[in-house]
Every structure is written in C-alpha cells, then in structure tokens.
Amino acid sequence: MRVVRFVLFRLSVALLTLFGVSIIVFAAIRFVPGGFEDVVLGPFGTPETREAVRAKYGLDRPHLEQYVLWLGATTKGDFGTSLTTGQPVAAEIIRRAPATIQLALMSTLLAIVVGVPLGVASGVTSTNRVARAAGRLVGALGASVPTFVLGTVFVFVFSVWSLGVTVGGYVPFFEDPLANIRAMTLPVVTLSVFGMALIQRTTRDSVLNVTSETHITAAVARGERPPDIIRGHVLRNASIPIVTVTTVFLAYLLGGAVIVEQMYSVPGIAVYVVQSVENRDYLVVQAGVLLAATFFVSINILADAIYALIDPRIGGQRRDS
Amino acid sequence: MTLLVRGPLSELLDFVRRDRLSGAGAILLATLVLLCLFGPWLPLGDPEEIGIGPRLSVPASGWLLGTDELGRSVLPRIVDGLRSTFLLAGTAVVLTGLFGTLIGLVAAYAGGFVDMTIMRLVDILFAFPPLLLGILIAAALGPGGTSAILAIALITLPLFVRVVRAVALSVAARSYVIAAEVSGAGFLRVILVHLLPNVLGAVIIQLTYALSIGMLVESELSFLGLGVQPPDASLGSLLRLGSVYLTIAPWLVFPAGLLLATAILSVNLLGDGLRDMIDPLRGRPLR
Amino acid sequence: MQRSKFFPVLASCLAVFGLLLVSGVGSSAGASSSGGTITWAKPDEAQSLDPHTDFNGNTWKFFFPVYDTLVTTGETLDLQPGIAESWEQTSPTTYVFQLRKNAAFSNGRPVVASDVVGSLERVLDPDTGSWWANALGAVSEIVAEGDHVVRIELEKPHTQLLSALAHVSTAIMPMEEYAAGTFDPTKELMGSGPFMVTEHLQDQSWTYEANPHYWGEGLPVADELKILIVLDEAARIAALRDGRADIGTFVNPDLPALLEGDENITVVTQETASYYNLDVNALSEQSPFTDIRVRQAMNLALDREEISRVALGGMGAVDYPLPRTFPSSKVCVDVPSYSGSREERLESARALMSEAGAEGVEIDLLTTSALPSLIHIAQVIKQQLADIDMNANILQLGYAEWIDAVWVRGEFDLNVTWLSGYGDPAIVLGSWNPEKTGWNAHYLVSDPELNDKIAEAAETPSGDERDALFAEICALIDDGANMVALVNKNSIIAYRNDRVEVNIHPAEGYEDELKYIEEFARIAP
C-alpha cells in the first residue's frame, strides 16, 4: 500500500513538473524578440506580410488558445508540425533520436565502465598518501575540463593525425556500423569524461565511507579476501551514490550533447532543438524541451526505483542531495 | 562547526597543512583571482587594441602568447577572459547563495503548502534543460553579462535550494529550535538566528560546487556566443573564436583552455577540502 | 589491497574501443569519368523552398541545381542563354525571347512559353510577396507567342531587366502543374535544371539526382549531387580532408592558410558583386545619426583598407556603392570618404563631430552571428570610430533577434550587414531609394535628387551617359552617408583536386558559387 501511494505521489509530482515546464517553455519561446515570421521574411518583410505569415500558421491566435490546443494535442502524442519543414515534429525528432540516444548510452556506459573501477581503485589504495592524492586529483581534473575544451583538444589531435577515428561524418549505425563507431568515438569520449570523473569521485567517497563501517571491519577481521570484501560489501553499498551520480550525469548529458553534437556535426536532437530556437520553430522547441524534462523526471523516478531494489529499507524514502 | 569558532587565518593555515591538495587549490585560486584583480595594471598590453601585431602571429616579444585573428595580443585577452569568467560566475553564485539559502530555509521551516509550492517550482526549474534555459534568456534579454549571470544563477539555484532545505529540515526539529519557538521567537528570527548558522557549513560546501558549475556554464554559454559581447573576452568566447584557427594558431586555444581548466580545478580542489573539513565524517580512509 | 582486479577491466574497455578504431581511407588520382556522386559541404540549411519569395542567398544555393532562369550570367557577369536560347530587344521597351525547344521539367514535360509567362507573373503578383518584383521594373505585359516565344513589354525602358531575369528569384516553374495543384513551390522543388531533389533531411543533407530530361548535352556529368549541411567550420574542413566531401564553401579568409600543406585540396577565391555595408539609422529619434554631420564624420573615420586587411585578412578589397566588380565602379573611386589620407579624413571628421557637438557619443553597433565575418568587421569599425570620440557598443544578435531589432523595430544606430550586387549596377543602387524598396524606409532618408538620378540611370542604356549618372549617384550616396559600402564580400571555395574536376568561374553576382556544377566530374580512382 505504501509503495502504491509512493508511486502515485511521485507520478503526480512528475506530471506537475512537466506541466510547469510546458508553460515556461511556451511562454519563453514566444517572449523572445523576433518571431517565426521574421525568420521567414527577413529584412524584406512588411507589417502586412508578417501578419499574413502569422495568420497562415495560426500564430496570431491568443496565446492561451494556442497553448491549450498544443497541450491537448501533446497529451495525445501529437506534437504538431514543424513550421520550418512542414513535417510532423515527431517524425523530425525520431529521425534525429538514434544519434542522440547512441551518444547518451555509449557515454554513460563508458563513464560507468571507466569511472567505477577508477573510483574503487582510488578508494582502496587511499591509505597510501600519494595514491590518495592522485585519486583525488584525477577526479577533480576530469570534473574541471569543460566539454568544449576537451573537444577542441580532440579535434586538434585527430585533425592532425587521423588515428582511425573521424572528426564528424556521422553515419547511422545500421547503415555502416564501423563508420558509425569511428565517427561516434570522439563525441562519446568527449562527453563521458565529465561522467567518468563524477562517478570516480563518488565511488571513491563511498568506498572510503563504507570501508570505515563496522561490518567491513568485521569482514576484514574474519579474514575475508579483499576482492571478496569489495565485491560483496563495498560495491553493494556504494551502488546507491553511484546510481545518484549517474542520474546527475544523464541530466548533464542534455546540455553537453548540444556542444558535442555541434562540434562533431552529429545530427542529434540537442543541436536540432537549439537550431529550432534560432529558427523560431516553436513546436519543435516546445516538444524538445518537454521531452528533455520528461527524460529528466523519468530517470529520477527510475533512480528511486533502483534504490528501493538495491536497499529495500529505503523504499519510498527519497534521498536528498 | 569549528570554522566559525576559530580565527580564519589560523584555520586557513591549518587547512593548507592538513590537506596539501586542497591547499594547493586554494593558493592557485587566490593567485588567479589576484591576477584578475591586478591584471589591468600589469604590463600585459591592451586586450582590445586591434592590429598591435600581425594577424595570427606566433608568440613574440610584443605579444607573448601570440596574436589573434584581428592582430590583438592574446595574453591580456586571456587575463581579461578569466576575469569575465570569475566575475560572471562569481556574481551569479553569490545570487544563488543568497536566494538559495533564503528559499531553502523558508521552505524547510514554513513546511506545508509553502514548502510544497517552493519545491515544485524548484523541480520545474531543475527539469528545464540548463543550456537551453541560458539560450532562451540570452535571446530574450540580449546576449551579454546580465543574461549570463541570470542564466547561471537559475541553473545553479535548484540544487542549492534542495541541499539547504534538506539540512535545515534536520535542524528544524531539534529541541533548541522548538524551545526558541515556544519562547516566542518570530519566523524571521528562528530562520536567521537558529537555522542559518546551522546550515552555513553546507552552504559553503555547496557554494564552491555552484561556483565550479557556474564557471562551466558561463564558459559553455560564451562558447555558444551568448556571454559577454566582443571585443570583451571570456575564456569560452576566446575558445569559440580560436577553435577555427586551431591547426594554424593553437596559441589562441590552448592557453585559454588550460587556464579555464586550471581555474575550475582550483575551485573543485578547494571545495573538496572544505567538504572534508566541515563534514569530517565523510571521506575517511580505511585503517 | 589488491588492485589487479580492476585494471584489467579498465584495460579491456580501452581495448574494445581501440579495436573499433580501424583505419583505412585512401584514394588515388585517375581520369575523370561520368556518373558517380559529387558531395558539397556547406554551412547553412535552406530557410524556405520557394525561389520566387526567398531572399536569402544561402538558400538560393539549393535552388540553383534545380531551376533554370530565362537568361543567366557567364564567367564574368556577362549575359548568357538560359531557358531562352536567344533574345532580342526590338524596342527600348520590348524584349523577345526564343525558348529552347529541348528543355523539359524533371517530370518530363517540355518547358513552354506559358510556363515562363506564368512564372514571371507569379513573381510580379503582389499576393506572392516576391521581394524581387521591384527589380523587374514596370512590366506592362508578358505574352506567350506560340509555345517557344515570350515577349515582355515594359512601360518604360529598364536597362537591368535581363540581369534581373538572370536571378533565381525569377525561376521558371512548371506552371501547368502549379495550376492543377500537383506542384506546390512552397513545399517542393521542380524545375528544368540539371538536377532534381530526391531526398531532403533537414539540417543534415540534400540529395539530388540527375534530371534525365535536362536539355544540356551529356549533362549533368555526375549522377548524383549531395549537399551536406555542416555548420561547424572545423568539421567541414575535416570532411574535405578525409574525403567525405569533395567541395566545401567557406567565409573564413584564412582558409588557404588552414589548408596549407594539403596537396589534394585547392582553394579558390571567387570574386562577387556583393559587399559588406553599414546601415546608418538617420530616422530614429534615439540615433545620433539623424544629424548628417555625425553620419559624414562616421563615414570619413572609416578605414576600409584596414577593414579589408585586418577583419578579412586581405581577402576582399575596398568597395563602393556601385560594386567594384563592375567596370563602371571607377566613377566612384574619388568620392570624399575614399580619398585623401586617413589623417586628413579624421581631421575633417573631428571638425564635423565638434560642429555637431557629438563628441563622446555612445552608439549601438548591431550585427548578427549568422555570418562569422560580420563580427570581425564590427570590431575593427568600433576601434576606428573611437578615433573620432565615438563609442560603439557591439551587440551580436541571433538571426531572428537581429531581424526584429534592425528591420522590424529599427532600434539600432549602426548595423553591419551585406548587400548583393547581382549582374547590373543599377540593381543594387536601387536600394538607395527607400520609397521603391520599402525595407530600409525606416532608417534611410529619402533624397528626391538621388531618387530621380537612380530612376534615370535605370532607364539609360549602358555607356558613358549612364556612367556619368552613376558618378553623380555615388557622390550623393557618399554625402548622405546613410548606407555605406565597406569591402567586397568574396566566396571561398575549396575542393579535392584528386577527386573532382571542377569549373569555378572567377566572378559571380547572384550567389551561384558553383554555377557549372553540372559539368563537375568525378575523378575515377
């Protein structure tokens, strides 16, 4: 019963959040100076032609009416039509989704696969002063290099020496897997370094915390082998913060993807939504932001579910911070 | 809360001694801030003078880090850029700190409907894609420092409020707060006298994180062309313009990138140290 | 503590990545051959699909391979046959065009006179809202005489008519299908040009296939043309380097330096009739430029040579209201803001500033991020204006905000932008009559004397008489300092000389950088 109530509560809060986001993005994109009609008509528009364009696309209707119509359609899964291309927004987004999803999945995977072992390594070696400092430095460094700085370095290095990967040149995975991987390697690595650092830092802290707890001391006292202790006790207990920080990283991906997609010409959703702000393609921006917010809210709920799975004692208790 | 009891200087010395890495971060940060403060008086050259040397020239005596695509000396521009980055991110984080603390405390102490409303608004802000928020603000208010500050403040605010509220909640139920209430202390008095000192530690830790995130966001916005307007420089905007000339004039990019990473690193190292000090139970090694 | 357990995990992760990085791009030069795909990487996506209404030079580039015009321009802006095989001016106001008999749209239907008449009428129809209608002058009628002859009657002579008809804004569309509702020019492209669009992935790519009904003998040489939209310049360069693109177009003047050492890549600078210019707001009450002395001082303080040298790295020379690409521009060389030394001009400028009491004035200098070179020009101008104690605040806006600020609300003092020159000097000079153009009426003072001279030049046939009028027009424009020409805007084209054989013409007026794209051939490996 408690679980059901908890789930219902979380879902209603999530819906409320999305509702709020929908209002903000709708208002914001219409509040900015320069409308779709200005993009279409440019310097040669007149008050009459601008009004004609607005009327043609229904942009002259009262804002509340437009909002209600849009929200109503959106709840039924209809995101409307792109003003720029005349194609359904959903189709435009779906076409770009594979690149962004691949980018996000591979980056997260790489961040975990590198970050967790690094974190455990720097946690368990931290009785040594030098190793302790090195572990901290690596984590802090990774979290300090902005995505675009890293990207610029990669572009420089790999423009001079190709080394098998390409700068740009995205090809869909199912068209040519090899070319796809070659084009996606740099974007993925660029994007995941921040996540590696984040996960390394958190894993290291958790390992340090957990290893100071009594049941570990007891396990050491019992003479269990260190690898078993790490697998059986440490990682198990460190997994909750790791899940937390992974959700933080996934949220960060939404922003990082804009820069990485742009730098490496990956035709993804992030760069499309940003481009649509420039084009005043309102419905695309609205759909894109709402989608990003849905993603954000969902991973947070998912994270809570994972907490409950890992540690049933938590069940329903949200971990703040 | 030893930080508040002992003298700040001895505390700082102690801190540097105990935690060399964070001490190094603190010293690095102080050096960079001083560099920014006194940059205009250092004999570095004019950051905005066009045609001081040939275009895209390699480093030479008149321009120690080379020149950019308009023949400006890169060195003073980088110092200028670091100042912009610190100033914008710093101002924004001060705003976040003030409002975030206040909002967090009010939410925690008032509870009920007020808390619910505040936290749902914070949720909404949290769920809004951060970079897009910055882009929309820059489009609405025009690109420039004010937009960047507002964007950074709004992006760093939600986490701040959540942390402050969480810490304050654990304090609000303690007996001395209840005692103060019983003795007739007002809403504001309870918040400022009883709650605020107890969340300060968390606020300080959170401020350093917010500063490092703020600097990342500022540089990203500038990299997208939405920060300070040319000829003013920010490290992000320098990288944006320089990256075009990467292969023929790497001096436009690498010093600026290195400086930016170093500055953020110094803030992060300091933040880690402060956290270990204020919250000493965390991060203790296995003995 | 044992750590050996964790490093193998890390190592194997890296190994997986390493395995995926298999290299192997290679090609060697050979003879050119027909067929194959030509790939062109360009920075901007199309803004609309209707050539009759689109005003954006970046968008026209997507139209050129598809649409033909009645006439076109050749290698040096000289008029050449298009859909019209030949033409004749039978009176000062009558033009007769003989159409090609073998031209056909990509659906196979032959191009006939009624398509030409219908297309031009659509351009002239006020409901279409074509920004180009004005350039065609006062057309009294367009008549089809049989299937292959078109006659255009004007109310008065209009020397630039043929040049105006060479613009893709007068593209010949399949009007029969348009009337039947099976072709919608705002949603699709269908013309009689060498290629036809088969796929368009927004922000990603355009794919064109050879039009099997194209009139050019053995053309196009390639089977397929692919346009890749690559926003980022470094990525476009990378695409050229690793062979994903055969041709790339750029605005960065340092491209030759950036590509130095790449023997396989040739960089060509194409002169254009377009130039960067400065719009000066003489009509807004907030603008200090309502005072003509302040405008003139500003104009005198500009150092166009420095703008060219510093902002454009020497690529793009000093330009005049009458574009330097046209021989007639020689009559504009000696107007006051171009002659004398900079010191002398600064002295006159400072005198004007103090006369106007405008020393220390603050102005807003707007520009857009839509074209990267604009911000460089703006910064050089800011420094130059500081020499006469004029402090410019630069604002680089996104495209939509810029349109709104400059063209809708008119809230600016100075605006850095560019003008296209096209094939006849009178076309761009027509911009100085705000009553005709309309789009600059909110910041450009209407000068009756200048308007008359512009109208007179439009009716005067090319020659000395017209050049004399141009000289007077240039002097008036310089004196008014209300729209100021700065420096020439060139196109920079880079191509893989080991992969494609190209023909890039030296001068262009209509943004058609790759005019002879139907002749481009793949070099067989």
What can you see in these coordinates?
With 321 residues, chain A is mostly helical. Chain A has a domain at 107-272: MetI-like (MetI-like fold, Orthogonal Bundle), CATH 1.10.3720.10. Chain A has helices at 2-31, 36-41, 47-56, 63-75, 89-124, 129-142, 147-160, 177-211, 214-222, 226-263, 269-279, 282-310. Mean pLDDT of chain A is 86; it is low at 315-321. Chain B has a single domain (18-38, 65-278), classed as Orthogonal Bundle (MetI-like fold). In chain B, helix 4 (74-110) packs parallel to helix 11 and helix 8 crosses helix 9 (187-223). The radius of gyration of chain B is 22 Å and the shape is elongated. Chain C is of the alpha+beta class. Chain C has 16 helices and 22 strands. Chain C has helices at 6-20, 57-63, 113-124, 161-165, 175-180, 233-241, 255-258, 292-301, 304-311, 342-356, 373-386, 399-408, 425-429, 434-437, 448-459, 464-480, and strands at residues 32-33, 37-42, 71-73, 79-81, 84-91, 94-99, 139-144, 149-154, 195-201, 205-210, 224-229, 247-250, 265-272, 275-280, 361-368, 390-397, 414-419, 483-488, 491-496, 500-501, 507-508, 521-523. The chains are: A mainly alpha (321), B mainly alpha (287), C alpha+beta (525).
How is this structure best summarized?
The complex is a heterotrimer of chains A (321), B (287) and C (525). Chain A has 321 residues and is mainly α. Helices cover 76% and strands 0% of the residues of chain A.
Q: Can you count the beta strands of chain A? A: 0
DSSP helix count of chain C?
A: 16
Category from helices, strands and their pairing of chain A: mainly alpha
Q: Identify the overall geometry of chain C.
A: globular
State the helix count of chain A. 12
Instruction: Give me the count of strands of chain C.
Output: 22
Q: Which strand order does the major sheet of chain C show?
A: 9-10-11-2-12-19-13-21
| Biggest sheet descriptor of chain C | 8 strands, mixed
Work out the radius of gyration of chain C. 25 Å
| CATH class value of the domain at 107-272 in chain A | Mainly Alpha
User: Roughly how many Å apart are the termini of chain C?
Assistant: 59 Å
Low-pLDDT runs of 5+ residues of chain C are 1-30
Which geometry of chain A do the CA atoms define?
A: globular
Protein chain pair with the most extensive contact, residues per chain: A-C, 63 and 51 residues
Which whole number gives the mean pLDDT of chain A?
A: 86
Give the CATH architecture of the domain at 107-272 in chain A: Orthogonal Bundle
Mean pLDDT level of chain C? 90
CATH superfamily of the domain at 107-272 in chain A: MetI-like
Biggest beta-sheet profile of chain A = none
Instruction: Give me the strand/helix succession of chain A.
Output: HHHHHHHHHHHH
Strand fraction band of chain C?
15-25%
